[in-house]
Amino acid sequence: MTTTATQDPRGRPAPRGPASPGAALAVLPHVLRGALAWTDAHRAEFALPEDVLEPHTQVNATLKPLGELAQLCSTVRAATAPGTPEHEVAGDLVTYAWEQVSRGGLLLELLRAEPFAAYPYEIYAAFAGYGLRHEGFEALARPLTATRAWAHTEQHANRQLGLINSERRVGVVTHTDAGGVLSRTWLGGLSEPWTFEGPSGYALTHTVFHLTDWGRMPDRVPEKTDAYLRTWLPAWADGCLESGQWDLTGELLAVAASLPGPAPLELLDALWPVLADVQHATGCVPETGVPVHEDAPDPYPFIDCYHSTLVTAFAAALSLRSLTDGSGPSRERHTP
Predict the structure, then answer these.
(1) For every residue of 255-310, which 3-state class applies, written as one string?
(2) 66 within 8 A of 48, measured Cβ to Cβ
(3) How far apart are CA 113 and CA 52, in angstroms?
């Protein structure tokens, strides 16, 4: 593991200092490969239980991790060059997730059981955006998503953006305008930056992810939102580092790498060495707290590090793309 950050007396990496030019590129390839290697080695932990369709099964402990595996690894594959190890591993993990949902058949059963729940549709959209389709699922979803009930499901604005992006991925007419929904989010309202905290932070990051299709279309970010984020991301990231919020730090890095135009070099160079130091030698990253550096095959419980490790891989792939600008997405403006 590359170690670049100093540590405070409690063993936690210290807040970032002045950025060293090129520091992000020096650590990012290792961070990305390590996070993907850990995820690949623990793919069995994402497997769905036999009773996944039963009412007592906890969605957040079963389908949610698998959906995140599919979503984030599909983005990693899109952001990396064909033929590279990280590109191939990410693709294998998406295929594994697709097999876990019986190539879409299990998602069709979920949709039949909960026709107006958003999560089966959003999980399916992660695969559809990758090119994996299930004719039966779409045949049932098509009339459901055309109903007034679907268009008027009550949910938080950033969650509604997620549904709009899922509809775009599946290829149907969106149920409402993304621009109007964006204006109702914490980020879209350009909220006072000092009101940033954990819940608003995650709402902010997911607003950007849904708006940009998980970093694939940066130019969907309006100019005023882009300027607001470039101004305040450094301060928010410092706060996350000081409090050991590694998962949210990773998400903020992914946001920084999803902005249109030039990459925020100073921010990426300052933050990535710190997160690289938090990453364990096995490749995993804890969600919060003092990182473990002792040799151990599994330094954290799976539930406490799988998401932050996936987010680290996701953010690293986007950051490498934004810094090298070699095979990134089109820069045509798609402001909603």
Answers:
(1) HHCCCCCCCCHHHHHHHHHHHHHHCCCCCCCCCECCCCCCCCCCCCCHHHCHHHHH
(2) yes
(3) 12
Reported as a single tens digit per residue, the pLDDT across 208-251 is: 999 999 999 999 999 999 999 999 999 999 999 999 999 999 99
pTM (predicted TM-score): 0.92
Q: Is-contact 61 117, C-beta < 8 A?
A: no
Summarize pLDDT for 23-79 with one digit per residue, the tens.
Answer: 999 999 999 999 999 999 999 999 999 999 998 999 999 999 999 999 999 999 999
3-state secondary structure the chain: CCCCCCECCCCCECCCCCCCCCHHHHHHHHHHHHHHHHHHHCHHHHCCCCCCCCCCCCHHHCHHHHHHHHHHHHHHHHHCCCCCHHHHHHHHHHHHHHHHCHHHHHHHHHHHHCCCCHHHHHHHHHHHCCCCCCHHHHHHHHHHCCCHHHHCCCCCHHHHHHHHHHHHHHCCCCCCCHHHHHCCCCCCCCCCHHHCCHHHHHHHHHHHHHHCCCCCCHHHCCHHHHHHHHHHHHHHHHHHHHCCEHHHHHHHHHHHCCCCCCCCHHHHHHHHHHHHHHCCCCCCCCCECCCCCCCCCCCCCHHHCHHHHHHHHHHHHHHHHHHHCCCCCCCCCCCC
Mean pLDDT for the chain overall: 91
